[in-house]
Amino acid sequence: MTPPRLSKPPPHSVDEVPGPPGGPFVAVLRMRRDPLARFTELHQRYGPLVRLVRRPVSLFLVSDPDAIADILVGGSRAYGKGAVMHGPGSWTHLVQPLRMLLGDGLLTSTGESHLRQRRLMQPLFHKQRIAGYGEQFVALAAAATESWQDGQLMNVHAEMTELTLAIVARTLFDVDISDHVVDVVRAALDETMAGSAPQEASGLGLGHVDRFPLPAARRRRATTTALDETVYELIAERRAAGASGNDLLSLLLAVQDADTGERMDDTHIRDEAVTLLLAGHETTANALTWTFHLLGAAPDVASRLRAELDTVLGDRPPTVADLPRLVYANAVLRESMRLYPPVWAMVRHLLEDRVVAGYLLPAESTLVLGQWVMHRDERWWPEPERFDPGRWLDPATAAGRPRFAYFPFGGGTRQCIGTSFAITEGVLTLATIAREWSLTPAPDVRVRPEPSFTLRPRGGVPMIAHRRRDRRDSARAGGSQG
Ligand code: HEM
Questions:
Q1: In this structure, is residue 421 part of a structural domain?
Q2: Phi/psi-derived region of residue 153, left when phi > 0, alpha when psi is between -120 and 50, beta in every other case
Q3: CA-proximal residue: ligand 1, atom 18 (nearest)
Q4: Which residue, judged by its Cα, is nearest atom 15 of ligand 1?
Q5: Domain CATH for 46
Q6: Containing domain of residue 23, as a range?
Q7: 406 CA distance to ligand 1 centroid (A)?
Q8: What's the whole-model pTM score?
Q9: Has 416 been labeled as part of a binding site?
Q10: Is ipTM over 0.90?
Q11: What are residue 447's phi and psi, to 5 degrees?
């Protein structure tokens, strides 16, 4: 006998989505004040789908792994990037705060144009190609710590930002951190980050009431123009020289569509290069900064990490070949990105009416997918606030979690193209620094996250650098045994 077919219950209406009482003004004010705490609280109180604002924007927080899988993977064609804003009358626009700087690069392009670009660029980020950059990651990390003094107080966020900028400058343009190109890049990126209200920067569409003061807007335009000129100069130089290098810019110049034979024009290469500059250093700087911050507050974890580094590396710097054995270092980085995901929320909007987490939401609804919230969900992360890399060491536990309980790199066709780059860079840099240095928190400093485009530490992370003596002792002991 065939079992009776269980028909799916009809979806609930949008009016039934739970959410906090009060009008949009109060809702936006509360979110703007502290989006991380507010989203966490709303998720805990109202569940996997929360109505954040009803009008003039229709904004929802999604914290259901299956719904996130539909948005990013299964039904991704039904969703666009960015937030939809509605103004008086029929005025509607899309908030894509980075578009002015990034143009039509991979991060900001949409639809067919994005898929085509992604196909062209994917081979540049193949695991094996990234492995070729390993030596540079290690050399640049070692160089960045050369000036550190034992006992020195430093801002780890500033140090990691300079290091990851040096890495991206070398791998993208094959230039040194001291090159004037890097100054121009630094100025443009700083101005863009500083000039944006956090709420607008996050792309949540909550910052439209802010207006950039005129001088700041002018500065932003000036630094972006200088950046454009520099990048176009580099492109022209490379073209003239026959672009045969291994840096990403040379590879972009050589990229050719397999079907049409078409190459990228200069504007397109500029947009992709600036996108990689920003996406490739801001996120990794934050990941490394939070990792050192967490290690500083967890001596047991730090000591287990050092033990692994000493065992695997002995007295030499790491290489890409060591990565499979740096299991704990990898777990430390993953766990750090769980607690402080460099991209703390992503924003999508519905292109059509669609059922999300059991509710029928109308087209143009804006959906916030919050890594910060999901990565602290007690259903999958017992004692969520605890920094415990051990969570990643048992494959059975990891396999029991839904795919989108953890998504620091997003997912689906828009998953971070730099995932392998970031993990290779992150683990090798962490290993290079932590085998020589131990960083402890500066006394009486409270470090707080600032949710902007990325999750930066507000005011930096002051820490004290100590040159490791125990390593020398253990290396010496190991040497005398051999
Ligand atoms: C820890 C480091 C990193 C994190 C946490 C991170 C995170 C992310 C996330 C969450 C997205 C998806 C955004 C969305 O779908 O709305 C993304 C996209 C992207 N990332 Fe990363 N990223 C990191 C490092 C890098 C690096 C090193 C590069 C390049 C060298 C890079 C380049 C990009 C690009 C180009 C995209 C757009 C991809 C597309 O839409 O097709 N990222 N990243």
A1: no
A2: beta
A3: 416
A4: 414
A5: 3.30.43.20
A6: 1-95+344-407
A7: 15
A8: 0.92
A9: yes
A10: yes
A11: -90, 130
